[in-house]
Amino acid sequence: MSDHIPPLFKSFQLGDLELQNRIVMSSLTRGRATNPELVPTAIMADYYGQRASAGLIITEGTWVSKKAIGFINVPGIYTEKQVEGWKLVTDAVHKNNGKIFVQLGHCGSASHPDFFDGEIPRGPSAINPQLQSFTPEGFKDTVTPVPFTLEEIKETVNDYRKAAENALKAGFDGVEIHAQIYTLIPQFLSAATNQRKDEYGGSIENRSRILFEIIEALKTVWPTKRIGLKFTPAAFNPGILVPDSETIATYQYILKKLNSYDLGYVQWVAPAVDLAGTVIEALDDDYFAHPRTIYKGSLMANGGFTFTSGNKIIEEETADLVSFGMPFIANPDLAERFKQNLPLATADPETFYAGGETGYTDYPNAI
Q1: Rounded to an integer, what distance in angstroms lies between the CA atom of residue 54 and that of residue 24?
Q2: According to DSSP H, which parts of 118-246 are helical?
Q3: pLDDT band, very low/low/confident/very high, at 125 (cuts 50, 70, 90)
Q4: How far is 327 from 347, CA to CA, in rounded Å?
Q5: Which end of the chain, C or N, has fewer beta carbons within 10 A?
Q6: pLDDT for res 1
Q7: If 0-12 CB within 10 Å is exposed, 13-18 middle and 19+ buried, where does residue 141 land?
Q8: CB-based contact 339:1 (threshold 8 Å)
Q9: CB 40 within 8 Å of CB 89
Q10: What is d(CA 296, CA 293) in angstroms, rounded to the nearest whole number?
């Protein structure tokens, strides 16, 4: 490497945390909590520990409560046993001088009665999101949910707070709110799945309310610089949770309001489809520059970046951090491979959710 330090290898100050580089491992569902209690396992500690050369690791989406479940073999952080399992993970990462946030998630109506002994999942309104849930018996169609009562919304917000407390006990360095794709928060944000008539429905402000209540709950546990948020206006999911005529205004409102919070970062996720001809086509021109014009805090860019494009977006000051997903699966030493300009290994999709060490902890370092 020359005397010039590539932008991705410059340290970053995240509140009182100094990240050794700006290469972030983004959340990746891997399905290795293969036990009835959804406790993180020893191989999960090995997996995350292997990848500690990232400036920051963000865990797979992690259930904030039993009611949040919507995908098999994904760990939770709502029981003492789960906290003890996560301690193995955080210890492994810290032993290798890494930093790690836990991503807190809830599937809402994108779940299935199979996870709840036949009980119907809860959602913003009695509207089927028309998705599929990965159950112990395979993929099954979602059902029409039971609408959250006001009391259940308060309980759910409190579940996030308790999960944040457990994250502190487990030794995490911070928490990230999972607010993208088809999960609980996007279900509240979308008029397609949220047709409530109370203070959580109708206007953009009302549909966004639960997100800010969750942030308020988390900040009673963590300094705001230890809280991140991952979201996107460009989630073209199967079913009815897709961008609409209010999407751009909704995300502009959220970004503007987030300026009153001193969050660690907002992770802005790229679209997986061409936006030309869609209702959010206006974002197509320099997609990542859009939040920069509104949000004054730190931005993390996510979505198919390479070493070259990752350096470029930081150099242009469009983003402060770049998160990488797929490359980290087969390249535990991704940061070192970038540094040495070494070829990247390719991950085997057949083992993404296979449940064992194969395709998980057996990818070798390049050197």
Answers
A1: 6
A2: 150-169, 184-189, 204-207, 209-218
A3: very high
A4: 8
A5: C
A6: 43
A7: exposed
A8: yes
A9: yes
A10: 8
Domain boundaries, the chain: 7-351
CA–CA gap between residue 31 and residue 357 (Å, rounded) = 11
Residues in the chain, overall count: 367
Of the candidates 297, 294, 364, the one whose C-alpha atom is nearest the C-alpha of residue 336 is 364
Summarised one tens digit per residue, pLDDT across range 281-302 is 999 989 999 999 999 999 999 9
pTM of the model: 0.97
Q: What pLDDT, on the 0 to 100 scale, is given for residue 354?
A: 86
Structure tokens belonging to residue 182: 């088809």
Tokens representing 77? 């952080």
Alpha carbon distance 223, 69 (integer Å): 27
pLDDT at 266 over 60: yes
Segment holding 200, helix H or strand E:
none
| d(C-alpha 117, C-alpha 66), whole Å | 12
Per-residue tokens: 209: 């309310």
Q: Residues 253-275, buried b or exposed e (16+ Cβ, 10 A)?
A: bbbebbeebebbbbbbbebeeeb
Cβ atoms 31, 355 nearer than 8 A:
yes
Helix (H, G, I), strand (E, B) or coil at 158: helix
Instruction: Report the C-alpha gap between 61 and 74 in whole angstroms.
Output: 8
Please check whether residue 39 is in contact with residue 82, taking contact to mean a CB–CB distance below 8 angstroms.
yes
48-100 per-position pLDDT tens digit = 999 999 999 999 999 999 999 999 999 999 999 999 999 999 999 999 999 99
Cα–Cα distance, 366 to 310 (Å, whole number): 21
| CA–CA gap between residue 35 and residue 42 (Å, rounded) | 12
| Assigned CATH topology for domain 7-351 | TIM Barrel (3.20.20)
Q: Give tens-digit pLDDT for 137-175.
A: 999 999 999 999 999 999 999 999 999 999 999 999 999
